[in-house]
């Protein structure tokens, strides 16, 4: 018996189409497409009509280009491997005025998207004046030069509803977009919206060409008050009961007093999955499903967990950690960790991986 990571391809594809609707989407495929598998995800997105992709890894960007040479592939982290960018036609962020001044001569023939820093403060130009400085200098340059193709930012607070930061970052960004438009600047691509902003707005922001969507395409809601049926989870993570042990009040189970039985004749199922397979310790504070019944996890080890069960559980039974009932986003909202944190933790080297048609 082996713990299994399993995706229903039909549900995955239907979810993509539901999320996309009639909008133009740039699919985020970073970190092995949120652990769903880069090639699998890209081909699924292509089937749904998505023709633009973004990632933070140059190696991943090259892999996407090899799968779909005609797609736009946008690298959100800057690199100095300029020859590879030119060779594969990969678009890249222009992350700062300093980067531009340092490498402007080496960026010739490369498609760049000028990045605005906004409230995230992770990367980007700090002001409209800095952006216009590059645009004007670029316009005056008659020599071989980079191709300014896009304008972008990232909203760091779109999934926060108890503060005003999203409204602030949205307002500042749209002012920049509109100011540049009024002064005659045009871009082939303008993108800023992550999953949370995309669903909050219900459409593309004004003058935008794409929403840059990640987690929603992989089946998780970006915020808790989004209707449950707006997004469908195709992923099932399951393991197996390998033994059922009986312990008594005061007996300790697992390493270093991980769990102490509080009553006699406590039944503990030993399950073949643990933190070495990517189960977060915060997830182990919650429950699993066995035979359609919910049972609490009592202790987590590297390759196993203890689950307190009853007479309805036997060795060989299937144990569900995630499915459409026990959704990843449900545990995000319970404080286990971000959707992407739970997904990226899963160790696909130790889990059996299955795609169901």
TrEMBL record:
InterPro entries: Ala_racemase, Ala_racemase/Decarboxylase_C, Ala_racemase_C, Ala_racemase_N, PLP-binding_barrel
Cofactor(s) the record lists: pyridoxal 5'-phosphate
Classification via Gene3D superfamilies: Alanine racemase, Lyase, Ornithine Decarboxylase, Chain A, domain 1
Cross-referenced Pfam families: Ala_racemase_C (PF00842), Ala_racemase_N (PF01168)
SMART domains noted in UniProt: Ala_racemase_C (SM01005)
Residues covered by the Alanine racemase C-terminal domain: 234-356
Assigned keywords, A-Z: Isomerase, Pyridoxal phosphate
Record field: transmembrane: none
Protein name: Alanine racemase
Native source organism of the sequence: Staphylococcus felis
């Amino acid at each position: 018996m082996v713990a299994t990571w399993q995706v229903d391809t039909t549900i995955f594809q239907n979810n993509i189409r539901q999320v996309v609707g009639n909008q133009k989407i740039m699919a985020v495929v970073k970190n092995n497409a949120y652990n769903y598998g880069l090639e699998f995800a890209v081909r699924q997105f292509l089937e749904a009509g998505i023709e633009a992709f973004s990632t933070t890894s140059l190696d991943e960007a090259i892999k996407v280009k090899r799968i779909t040479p005609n797609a736009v592939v946008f690298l959100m982290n800057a690199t100095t491997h300029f020859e590879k960018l030119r060779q594969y036609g990969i678009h890249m962020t222009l992350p700062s005025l300093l980067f531009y001044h340092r490498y402007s001569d080496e960026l010739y023939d490369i498609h760049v998207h000028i990045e605005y820093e906004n409230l995230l403060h992770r990367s980007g130009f700090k002001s409209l004046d800095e952006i216009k400085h590059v645009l004007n200098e670029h316009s005056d340059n008659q020599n071989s030069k980079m191709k300014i193709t896009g304008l972008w930012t990232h909203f760091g607070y779109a999934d926060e509803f108890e503060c005003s930061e999203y409204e602030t970052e949205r307002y500042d960004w749209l002012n920049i977009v509109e100011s540049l438009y009024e002064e005659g600047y045009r871009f082939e691509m303008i993108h800023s919206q992550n999953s949370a902003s995309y669903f909050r707005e219900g459409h593309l922001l004004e003058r935008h060409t794409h929403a840059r969507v990640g987690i929603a395409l992989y089946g998780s809601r970006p915020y808790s008050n989004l209707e449950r049926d707006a997004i469908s989870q195709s992923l099932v993570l399951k393991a197996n009961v390998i033994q059922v042990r009986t312990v008594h009040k005061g007996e300790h189970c697992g390493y270093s007093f991980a769990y102490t039985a509080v009553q006699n004749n406590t039944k503990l199922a030993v399950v073949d999955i643990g933190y070495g397979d990517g189960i977060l310790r915060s997830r182990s504070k919650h429950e699993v499903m066995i035979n359609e019944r919910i049972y609490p996890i009592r202790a987590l080890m590297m390759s196993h967990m203890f689950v307190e069960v009853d007479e309805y559980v036997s060795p060989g039974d299937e144990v569900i950690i995630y499915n459409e009932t026990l959704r990843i986003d449900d545990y995000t909202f319970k404080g286990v960790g971000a959707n992407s944190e739970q997904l990226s933790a899963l160790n696909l080297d130790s889990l059996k991986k299955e795609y169901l048609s």
